[in-house]
Amino acid sequence: MPELPEVETTRRGLAPHLVERRVAGVVLRRPDLRWPIPPEVVDCLPGQRIVDVRRRAKYLLLDTRAGSALLHLGMSGSLRVLPASVPAGPHDHVDLVLPAGRVLRFNDPRRFGCLLWQPAGQVHPLLRALGPEPLSEDFDGDYLHARSRGRSAPVKAFLMDQRVVVGVGNIYTAEALFAAGVSPLRAAGRVSRERYGRLADAIKGILRHAIARGGTTLRDFLSPDGAPGYFEQELSAYGRGGQPCTHCARPLKQAWLAQRATVWCGHCQR
What we know:
Blueprint: H1 4-18, E1 25-28, H2 40-44, E2 52-56, E3 59-63, E4 67-72, E5 78-83, E6 92-98, E7 102-107, E8 114-119, H3 125-128, H4 141-148, H5 155-159, H6 170-180, H7 193-212, E9 253-257, E10 260-264
Antiparallel strand pairs: 1-6, 2-3, 3-4, 4-8, 5-7, 6-7, 9-10
């Protein structure tokens, strides 16, 4: 599933093509993706000018004065700006018609993505309970330490709770825990304030680097221009179970934790 850097890469790639452009129409080739596409998308979006393209967690919001189109890429979705003359493929489910003969095309083979509507001045229910953005000033070691007190769940599961912090999925949680030297199995409530400080700094640094490198190419993800991300080549933990640790050369351990494959170094991460 595309994680925060992939979604941010998509946002940055789309914004120059969408901001200040007026949506001429909406073409729905099916009535639903993960959930039914609400009628407001067709009724309210055409004729509106896109004033901003924002990201909240792993959601993209196309803001207009009438409201916002709320999109999620799911496990395999992609958004690309294309000439309207390009024939739609079997998994090209939605087109937003743009000026100059172009469209924003939503392709989603597995249909786990979504296209929803957020009325102006409101917050969609999917966004209401989300925690802070990991790259914001609200997210730091003191925040993590305070939220983790009394938590017996493994720290990896704690960090992947979207109510605690948004968008730090399996890949980047594994990488941050490795960089900070924290075992993913340690109870969240038993990580010290100092170590949470290192962990928050590692999350911020790794996410910023991954965004700069174009995200992580895993299975289906491509940026809006079709180019793959390059951070995958630099992974230290995720997907490397049994391979040598880049610090101590011991074989990395692998197990399932919170229904996710988890890789760590039993020597370097405590």
